[in-house]
Amino acid sequence: MATETARTLQLRAPLTEDVVRDLRAGDEVWLDGTVWGVRDASLIRFFDKGQRPEGADFEGAVFIHTAPSVRMEGERYIPVSVGTTTSMRMDRFTRGCLEDLGARAIIGKGGLSQDSLQHFATLGGVYLSITGGAASWETLQIEEIEEVLWEDLMPECLWKFRVRNFGPLFVTMDANGTSSYQQVKAHTQAHLAAAYALLDD
Amino acid sequence: MLPRYIQTGSDSLYDDLVQVSAGLYKKALTDLPPDVRSAVNRVAEVEVGGARTRLDVMVKSIDVSDRTGIIVCQDTGICVFFVKLGTDFPVNGAKLIDALRRGIAVATKEHDLRSSVVHPITRENRQDNTGVGIPDVHVEFVDGSEELEILLVPKGSGSENMSYLKMLSPAEGISGVKRFVLDSVIDAGPRPCPPTVVGVGIGGTADLCAGLAKKAILRPVGEPHPEPEVAAMEQKLLAAINATGIGPQGLGGSVTSFAVHVEYAATHISMNPVAVNIQCWRGERAAATISSDGAVSYGY
């Protein structure tokens, strides 16, 4: 839900805490720089198994909930399709991503819980929503797969993508306690009686 | 007519079926059905603000896939086949199912598709989008037909995870059924990638009911149930769902679902089952018809 003060911003990842805390729900963001692909299996390895990949720095990182299709060309992985998965499955890892790894933003679809909203406020993070299902559009904005860690988890490895003009992303959970998903939920609750009435009329 | 597949067990038939299955998988993931395209275009015109932006991205991604062959959504899904087998089409059913399975593996390798299928206990991934019981193959028989119709739905997990079943009591009536459908869509919220098609199964047994909900999403988007009373119920459910304001991607807007499709079966005097199966906006499906002379035509 856009607000009157919604802005369109071009940002470069990694992000600083100041930049992230300035973002407001409703802002439209286009991103350049590094985005790390994470998903169920890689997050389970980080936080349930306590493992860390060697040589990776996640300070200020932007994470994206994804598991792409790729092909090999020589020694390199080439993106075939990079899209975004439903974030809520990975909700319990939000705090670890921010606090332990240093991430500042999570790109996904469908949003995260109120607990995660609290972590964004406390630790300085945001959730950026992407249009789910529109992977072909997204794939063209991936310049390169720079690195792949934990390849044994294929396709749920750690993917280091370099993106250019990646978007449109919308800030839908900000560091000030505002969640667009909560706003929509409130709207639905307010219209629930009317919706039920339509069932039987 | 001299059927090319005159003998049951003809090798060329099963080789062809592998290719048809592989072709359907790629087609379903890249070439959205015309009814889905028009639904997306229609909603893009009625939404405003951020919802409009999100619909525009969907329109652009369909266009990118048409131009580049990149699959629309990265989710290669879990493959479900719906086969209508003419009783006069000469085929060994077990070999047919095996050929469909092999086709999925062939397409996965050939097109570098992500393997989305794992063992449910060990989570081991065979890297070919198949596994025990997957692809899921449903077969219906068509008496006297010489054709074989194959419909493939590589169902995405975002929407399939938003599946619901409840064994209501008869006292809760059809009113309870309708409320359950609305409550399920509200619970799913942004997660199944709205605008969606909501498939509803009513009646039968628990598993039949869930299967009917899945069958309901196969219908072209918005095609009403042939029985007017059922079609009227579909419209009421759609109006109620769109009154929630969940909207595209669950971020607010006037269209949460493109359509509601209902399928039903008879049930027991003391049962009142209802199931919901949701299809994401991408609405992937592809179909092929094979005649007994070997001609193959593709559709949706």
Automatic annotation (TrEMBL), chain B:
Organism: uncultured Nocardioidaceae bacterium
This enzyme's EC code(s): 4.2.1.2, 4.2.1.32
Descriptive protein name: Fumarate hydratase class I, alpha region L(+)-tartrate dehydratase alpha subunit
Isomerase listed as a keyword: no
Fe-S hydro-lyase tartrate dehydratase alpha-type catalytic domain location: 22-287
A molecular function GO annotation: metal ion binding
Family matches, as Pfam families: Fumerase (PF05681)
Keywords recorded for this protein, A-Z: 4Fe-4S, Iron, Iron-sulfur, Lyase, Metal-binding
Coiled coil region boundaries: none
Family, as annotated: Belongs to the class-I fumarase family.
